[in-house]
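User: I'll paste a sequence; please echo it back and then give the predicted structure.

Assistant: Echoing your sequence first, then the prediction.
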Amino acid sequence: MKKLALGFVMALGLVTGAQAAGGGISWDKAPAKTNDLAALQNGAKLFVNYCLNCHSAAFMRYNRLKDIGLTEQQIKDNLLFTTIKVGDTMKAAIDPLQAKEWFGKNPPDLTLVARSRSGHGGTGADYLYTYMRTYYRDETKPTGWNNLAYPNVGMPNPLWELQGEREPIFEEKEEHGHKVQIFKGWKQTKPGTMTPLQYDQAIGDLVGYMQWMAEPAQNSRVRIGVWVLLFLSVFSFIAWRLNAAYWKDIK
């Protein structure tokens, strides 16, 4: 039940746009990991263990993970639970009817979230990377957590055991006659099982996997696009020279 509640409140943070805190924070640039198979495999493990309890990825099949270097046996041994088959889609174990009864709505699907969250601050991957790294303890909130990328978020930090607990450091300044708080950094109040660097790398892996999951053919599309542009460039040069040869004797 605890995992189900965490999964649902996570939805509240993901399905709405990022909001500014004290004038807004800049989204951090997510590392590019869609070509890093080891990172994608670790991200898939994090996604299955921390997100898939309540959220589905119904447009993705488990056997598609072979595209990131996993064998079918590895998928069965490490990422499948209960009676799920390797050809099944990534559907959450939660009963939709029970979820609606408990929470008022069924937790949203996360397959395309990395594409849908883009905005003026950057890509959807940038938003997710910033969002999952800017949680802090706030005892004034019902969940005991808050988030700089999404103030008053309804979702507690599902990875707090990995990250530990932190407090933001603000500097108060006066701008145009009003006092504003400028975010300056973090103070670690309770260590997690990972160092801050390890946690950032893990979130980078998770976001990289979600970015890949939102469009598995993205890297192939880019490679094909490069070859098409090269072909068109060469063809344009040949056509230009042929045109010059055909008209060279005409004045």
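The radius of gyration is 23 Å. The CA atoms of residues 202 and 244 lie 57 Å apart.
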